[in-house]
Amino acid sequence: MTLRITVLGTGYVGTAHAVTMAGAGFSVLGMDIDAEKIAALTSGRVPLFEPGIEDLVNHHRLRGVLQFTTSYREAARFGDVHFLCVPTPQSPDGSADLKPLLGALEGLAPHLTRPALVVGKSTVPVGTATVLGERLAELAGHPAVELAWNPEFLREGHAVVDSLHPDRLVFGVSSAPAAALLREVYRFLLDQGVPLIVTGLETAELIKMAANAFLATKISFINAVAEMCELVSADVVTVAEALGQDPRIGSAHLHPGLGFGGSCLPKDLRSFTAQARALRLTGAASLLTAVDQINDQARNRLVDLVRAECGGTLRGKRIAALGAAFKPDSDDTRDSPALAVAEQLHREGAHVAVFDPRASAQARRACPQLDHGESLLHVCREADLLVHLTDWPQFRDVDPAAVAEVVRARRIVDARNSLDPQKWRAAGWRFTALGRPASDPTISLSGTLLR
Ligand code: UGA
Predict the structure, then answer these.
(1) Which of the residues 52, 152, 205, 265 has the least number of beta carbons within 10 Å of its own beta carbon?
(2) What is the distance between the alpha carbons of residues 94 and 66, in angstroms, rounded to a whole number?
(3) Per-residue pLDDT tens over the stretch 178-191
(4) Is position 229 annotated as part of the catalytic site?
């Protein structure tokens, strides 16, 4: 008999996983305690922006292999394998708040009256799975109910592609039957040669924590180099490009700029730091703390640069903020560096008008004190300065000459190091960026730099 799958939590991870499982040939039931979300999904509307996801939800929904519910009882009755995809937000002390995860487990467990595997996908501190496993054994209505951990590595904005083509699969299990069942679930990926690591619960949990902390470390490392570049007139973009050519280093997540945000890297880094501190691992805790601090500093350095470009004060200045989402291809503004900077500029007396191709509604809700425009030209009207905050591809294609016609002054600060300085300077703009010299270096025919 074909396995039936439930996915508890229908956010980015859960919805992407649900459509992936439905595409793999399983019958899937998505469950969430948010009735509005479930009502939207049931009517074919996905209440989040993720390229390709709405079409897939509707495709599988209309085939009758993907349904949604708010009932734990229904989920428990339906599924053989239950994936927990609920968030683990940050507590005030920096550690992960496990209440939503525990709530989902405790909601589901008493209704499990036949053999089942409950599989955690959420990012958690090491040791969580063991605690949840014990709780599951206490509450489950059947003795053959077990817990496994299967961390996901998908990126927002690429959730569907990453779910369908993961770099690796990690199964954290405490028994051979649990590993065998997960192999059956992921057979379609294993048959395509996706590498599999089968390990214990703790190692599986730690793999995910370490992966996110390492990605954050790479970003903060290059941003620390950017700080040095600013003091010694070097160009961090060129440094990053050259570092990335070394296959031992690699160019991914080595893009300098405003740093990381979103609902994952910052809180996972802090949760990992809290755990390192609790274990009295002072070296690890200070390394991870420094990564977080460098990331925060990037926001302050940017505000300093914008203020300096405005002549030393932001009071009364009109700033056009290009971008609000924490990264491109996403409508997510949670812990967005772009919005944090826009808010700070506003606090210092600037009039800030924000435009984001996808996240305008979220930005408006999160920061009602800012002005929000429906187009780039709209927010640039009468601006004293443009600040490029989210690396949307469409911002790279903007025509500087067209924008020049509506602004008060031709000044732009590139906080994402992805605009072409020469294009903007050629159109008469003063172009500055984090970690880059304020003018283009002149290159002699022999290739040596002449300043
Ligand atoms: C991150 C990880 O990349 C995923 O592997 C992981 O599964 C996910 O968290 C999670 O834990 O669920 P995501 O939050 O979607 O994914 O974002 P990233 O693509 O990692 O970007 C995070 C932030 O870093 C963004 O604000 C981005 O603009 C910034 N960034 C990224 C840089 O500043 N420089 C870079 O080189 C790359």
Answers:
(1) 52
(2) 36
(3) 999 999 999 999 99
(4) no
